[in-house]
Automatic annotation (TrEMBL):
It comes from the Bacteria. GO terms for biological process: DNA restriction-modification system. The lineage of its organism: Bacteria, Bacillati, Bacillota, Negativicutes, Veillonellales. The keyword Repressor does not apply. The keyword Magnesium does not apply. Its EC number is 3.1.21.3. Residues 819-846 form a coiled coil. Residues 391-573 form the Helicase ATP-binding domain. Pfam families: EcoEI_R_C, Helicase_C, HSDR_N, ResIII. Keywords: Coiled coil, Hydrolase. It is an enzyme of class 3 (hydrolase). This is Type-1 restriction enzyme R protein. One of its GO terms (cellular component) is cytosol. It comes from Veillonella ratti. Residues 646-808 form the Helicase C-terminal domain.
Length: 1079
């Protein structure tokens, strides 16, 4: 009898592969491993046919498994089994590897899969058979070696004849099952699969043999429940790392004990596969307290309550976030009793535990308090952010988020944090995780450039950069892309990185919430959609036993779900007010005829199209009228004349020889090429000579984009760069002073990241602000979208699954989230629906019109949406027009520029209206906002913090100095650069608007004339003047001003200034307070 007899009727090839593997377990384990791999590969091919998934016949097993993972066909536990078989089979094929224990385990795994396959794909009523160890030749005296060999030859002959039949069977299955598999069948299969995994009667012993032993071996431990057991005489040995089973303790036996040499370092409680596991760590803790004092091993913590530092509990199941109590490897470090236990994805390696034992977290936390900050982080908010992270570490937080505006020095902050944590031995090794190569290269450059006592961080510590091998023992910082780490951890046959490889992870640009808008490069196509990216990127950071800090300028909903709410925030408004970033001028808003009216193709006409898939131009016949609004310009419809009109006008504003640089955001790579061509032609038509290198595109499709980015940053040319997504995140080019939007985006996060490219200071070119040229009314489109509510389309869920999730939601936020996903996906489908189908459904399902119905869905309550099931089901069954599934329409409609205007505030106001709104806001709030009242009535009492608070409040309401000055100049035809205090007082009490500089010069003139000052005193008075030009506020008294203003406090505060200027210092500040705001 074979363990695989149940498959021989309908799936004989699988049955005979399993039987052949059994017969070879004792005779030739190598053959067994090869046959079991063939068994797994053949089963996966069958699953593809049964699930109606089309794939290239040359598609490898690892790629097929990945597709099944994407489609949620295989649960993590099944994937783990398939991958174990695949890896051992590959080793057997390529190195002639053959180990009896591994071979027997592979047969067990195959039997586990066989029972699953029978229950899910053959008969839902099938009851899985228990596994029996294959019969040893010596156990059957009637069977000779010759007979066994004959049996194996016969099986090989059967297999050879069945392989062709198997291929034909799969082809027939694919054809007979139709193009679309019944959704109910899919649902039942998934349910049956989950039921099998839940109810599979794996005993604790089987769980250990099938899963836990293999997992421990993969992590570097010698493990075998049957052989490496205390009862079998196995004992700890020097220079060997063993997971010994059934080790006696007072009151029982530990399922496993981990020994590094002779040192007992870990206790494992193992439970059977379908047990909830989190609570069973308490049993392991009990064993750790009751360790016997034995001669065979050393107990490092014999004097403590717990004799063993590392405590584990597991049921062998892969970690699943949604079922964390029922899965994963639960871990607790008994050296820090205030920490709670938590689940891991894998086992610590022996080296991981050795390194853990070297770290004294409490001692390191104390040292961090007194450790000086490196000179290269001198801004107050950077130090505050570092303190927040270090406090979080001391408070045992494992996930933290820093929200800091683009351009405020997050990379420097990260380097300072890494340096301090490594120096004090608070962490052993840091993973610096980025989402694209260019960011990793930029981080590596910074580590090589930033100096600490004349040595760079890369000189002090071993740093592995993008593309370098796995970290070595001495490596302290490793830079990697998310994509590279996903491949390394989950799709590679190389040695698996252990969960303790890194104990601290920094995720740069942690938002990554805008793939809904992205044109993905080859490297990024590793992920199907944003949900896939988030899932895999979260899987990476969950894999390691590490504290994780996310850095972002734009926290998104999914970001806070991963990292929790920010522990420290330093906003764009904060940075502008503090003078660390520049603000933008009022946007230039373009209006053209096509932009205003849209593009419409007439019914019953032929139109030119670009077939994206075939990369050819073609024609299509339109039965019905087809219209496009601006959000589809350059995406679904190629409109050269619109771009030509915009770019021709832009030449009036952009100088290719200017010191400042320009970044143009295009819709896709094809559009970027068009923009470069048309812009060069526009300059040529105006007779303006342009160097050919001055205008280029930098996208993920050019050769060596990293080199092009360096030239953009450091050299004169290129001066104008057209990009899609490559330069939207994390790229530091301070000379950018112009941003041009030629594409609509739907993500506020991406928009903020785009703006962030131009916010950095650049004194070298005298940059005080930057300019926005909005050719697609992007500012209007996004003004009401909040950062924390991105609409995300999960392409992996069907319409009905999204509908059901919306109905199942237990809170309004979750309901709205899935309802919006549902509507977004329906809108996408509507664009592809055949017009005849649309007419039919509008009549039969009583929609009215699809457009009005979809609009109504947005405002429906959960109960109302529940009543729409039949309509949504009808919509789901509509056939889409697949004749041209991936095309762009080519518009030859002429366009004309109507106007270019600067607009103010979220309402796109004219200058006079904006000033009137500001005046109304000030007068309405004088008695509501304390700091505003002080500015109007008692300006000499105003402190820096009060000024800062009112600036932030005005910013929140869309009022700032740049906008007000620009509006004043346009409305009054009067060029004055006034500060916010002057504008407030002018609006409230009608004070004459005097320029910021003039007001300060007039006040300082009075101070200069107070007495005859010495040259040194005059030098310090001029420093006060310079500080006032930067921050136009004093304080009620000289002592408060000099003691509480950072720049003066660092120079000795009030007493220091009194020594330099003399006893008249109080009179100086008093006089300035009187003169600065004379009405």
């Amino acid at each position: 009898m074979s363990n695989f007899d149940m498959m021989k009727d309908e799936w004989s090839l699988l049955g005979h592969l399993g039987e052949t593997a059994e017969y070879n377990v004792y005779r030739d384990p190598n053959v067994t491993l090869v046959k079991i791999r063939q068994f797994a590969e053949s089963m996966v091919e069958a699953i593809f046919s049964l699930e109606q998934i089309e794939v290239d016949s040359e598609c490898s097993l690892i790629k097929r498994l990945r597709i099944l993972e994407w489609r949620n066909v295989l649960e993590p536990e099944l994937l783990e089994v398939f991958h174990n078989i695949r890896k051992h089979g590959n080793l057997a094929v390529h190195t002639n590897y053959g180990d009896f224990t591994t071979a027997l385990n592979s047969v067990r795994w195959a039997h586990f899969l066989a029972n699953w396959f029978m229950e899910v794909y053959v008969s839902y009523d099938y009851e899985g058979k228990a596994f029996s160890n294959p019969e040893k030749p010596q156990d059957n005296p009637n069977s000779t070696i010759d007979e066994l060999n004959e049996k194996i030859k016969l099986l090989e002959a059967i297999l050879e004849s069945e392989r062709l039949d198997y291929g034909l069977k799969l082809q027939k299955l694919s054809k007979n099952s139709g193009n679309i598999i019944n959704k109910n069948v899919t649902k039942v299969r998934r349910s049956q699969s989950q039921k099998y995994l839940k109810n599979k009667p794996l005993s604790e012993k089987e769980t250990r043999l099938n899963f836990i032993d293999e997992q421990l071996r993969n992590a570097g431990w010698l493990a075998d429940t049957d052989k490496i057991a205390w009862s079998q005489g196995e004992r700890p040995e020097k220079n060997k790392n063993k997971a010994i089973a059934e080790v006696p303790v007072n009151g029982g036996y530990a399922d496993y004990a981990l020994f590094i040499g002779l040192d007992l370092v870990g206790i494992i409680e193992a439970k059977q596969y379908n047990f909830s596991i989190a609570g069973h760590i308490e049993q392991a803790k009990t064993y750790a307290k009751n360790i016997k004092d034995m001669d065979e091993y050393e107990v490092p913590f014999i004097d403590g309550e717990y004799k063993v530092p590392f405590i584990y509990a597991t049921n062998g199941r892969s970690y699943i976030e949604q079922f964390k109590e029922q899965s994963g490897i639960w871990f607790w470090d008994s050296r820090y009793p205030e920490k709670t236990s938590f689940p891991l994805e894998g086992w610590h390696s022996p080296d991981d535990l050795k390194e853990k034992l070297k770290v004294d977290e409490n001692k390191a936390n104390a040292e961090l308090i007194n450790e000086p900050y490196p000179d290269f982080v001198e801004r107050y908010y950077q130090i505050e952010a570092i303190k927040a992270v270090e406090k979080g570490l001391a408070d045992n937080k494992r996930r933290m988020l820093l929200a800091m505006a683009t351009g405020t020095g997050k990379t420097r902050l990260a380097i300072a944090l890494m340096y301090r944590l490594i120096k004090t031995k608070r962490v052993r090794r840091v993973l610096f995780l980025v989402d694209r190569r260019s960011l990793g290269i930029q981080a590596a450059d910074a580590l090589g450039d930033i100096k600490i006592e004349n040595l760079s961080v890369a000189d002090i510590y071993d740093v592995k950069s993008i593309g370098e091998p796995d970290p070595e023992t001495a490596t302290k910082i490793h830079i990697s892309t998310v994509q590279g780490m996903v491949k390394r951890l989950f799709y590679s046959d190389d040695r698996i990185l252990s969960v303790g490889t890194y104990d601290f992870i920094i995720v740069d640009e942690a938002h990554r919430g805008y793939l809904y808008d992205k044109e993905m490069t080859d490297d990024e196509i590793l992920f199907r959609d944003q949900q896939e990216y988030i899932s895999q990127y979260r899987r990476v950071i969950d894999y390691f036993d590490a504290t994780v800090v996310g850095l972002t300028a734009t926290p998104a909903l999914h970001t806070t779900k991963i990292f929790n709410a920010p522990i420290y925030t330093y906003s764009y408004s904060d940075a502008v007010i503090d003078g660390f970033l520049v603000d933008h001028e009022p946007p230039y808003r373009f209006e053209t005829e096509l932009l205003k009216n849209g593009i419409t193709f007439a019914a019953k006409s032929d139109v030119d199209i670009w077939d994206e898939e075939k990369k050819v131009f073609d024609k299509a016949y339109l039965e019905d009228e087809l219209s496009f609004e601006v959000d589809n310009f350059n995406k679904k419809v190629i409109t050269e004349d619109f771009n030509k009109v915009i770019l021709e006008k832009l030449t009036d504003y952009l100088d290719t020889d200017d010191d400042g640089k320009t970044l143009i955001f295009a819709a896709n790579d094809l559009h970027a090429d068009m923009v470069v061509r048309l812009l060069k032609k526009a300059y040529e038509d105006k007779g303006i000579p342009v160097h050919d290198d001055a205008i280029i595109k930098i996208t993920g499709y050019i050769k060596n984009p990293e080199e092009a980015i360096k030239r953009f940053k450091n050299e004169k040319y290129p001066n104008i760069v057209v990009t899609v997504d490559l330069l939207t995140t994390g790229i530091d080019v301070p000379k950018i002073i112009n941003l041009v939007f030629l594409r609509r985006v739907r993500s506020r996060i991406l928009y903020d990241q785009m703006l962030g490219r131009a916010t950095r200071l650049c004194p070298k070119i005298g940059k005080t602000s930057f300019y926005i040229f909005d050719a697609v009314h992007l500012y209007d489109h996004l003004k009401n979208i909040t950062d924390m509510k991105p609409v995300v389309v999960n392409t992996n869920l069907s319409l009905m699954e999204l509908y059901q999730r919306a109905l199942d939601a237990t809170d309004n936020e979750t309901y709205e989230y899935f309802k919006n996903e549902l509507i977004a996906k329906m809108q996408q489908k509507k664009q592809r629906i055949d017009r005849t189908e649309e007419n039919n459904i509008e009549i039969s399902a009583s929609f009215g019109t699809l457009d009005s119905w979809l609009l109504d869905l947005k405002s429906m309550s959960q109960k109302q949406l529940g009543a729409e099931k039949d309509k949504i089901d009808s919509f789901d069954r509509l056939h889409t027009n697949s004749k041209y599934p991936n095309i762009k329409y080519i518009s030859k409609h002429p366009d004309k520029l109507l106007e270019v205007i600067q607009t103010y505030g979220p309402k796109n106001m004219k200058p006079n209206d904006y000033l009137e709104e500001f005046s109304k806001f000030i007068n309405d709030n004088i008695n509501k906002i304390a700091a505003l009242n002080i500015i109007v009535n008692r300006p000499k009492d105003l402190t820096f913090n009060e000024l800062r608070s009112i600036q932030l409040e005005l910013k929140r309401n869309h009022y700032d100095e740049n906008m007000l000055n620009s509006a004043w100049q346009k409305a009054k035809k009067e060029y004055i650069v006034a500060d916010i205090i002057s504008f407030i007082r002018q609006a409230a009490i009608g004070s004459a608007l005097v320029s910021h500089e003039t007001r300060i010069e007039n006040a300082m003139e009075k101070v200069y004339n107070m007495k005859s000052w010495t040259p040194k005193q005059m030098e310090w008075l001029k420093r006060i003047r310079a500080q006032l030009l930067s921050t136009p506020v004093l304080a009620p008294t000289a002592q408060v001003y000099f003691d509480e203003t950072t720049v003066w406090r660092e120079k000795g505060g009030y007493n220091g200034m009194k020594r330099r200027i003399g006893e008249d210092i109080d009179k100086v500040i008093e006089l300035l307070n009187d003169e600065l705001y004379i009405s």
